[in-house]
Amino acid sequence: MKELKEDLIERFRDVVYEHFNVYDFQELEKGIRFYVDVTDREKVEIFKEKLIEFIPHLNIEIGYRYGEIIIEATFREEKNRNWINLILLIATIASTTFVGMGFTPDFNILEGLKFSLAIIFVLGSHEMGHYLAARIWGMKTSLPYFIPFPTIVGTLGAIIKHKGPIPNRNALFDVGVSGPLVGIAASVLITAIGLTLPYQPVQGGTYIELGTPILFDAISLLVSPKSEFLHPIAFAGWVGMLVTFFNLLPVGQLDGGHVLRAMIGEKADIVSKIMPALMIIGGWLFSFLSGEQSILIFWGIIALIFSMQQHPKPLNDRTPIDRRRFVVGIATFIIAILCFNPAPIRYS
Question: Which listed residue, 34, 159, 186, 205, has the most CB atoms within 10 A of its CB?
Answer without folding.
Answer: 186
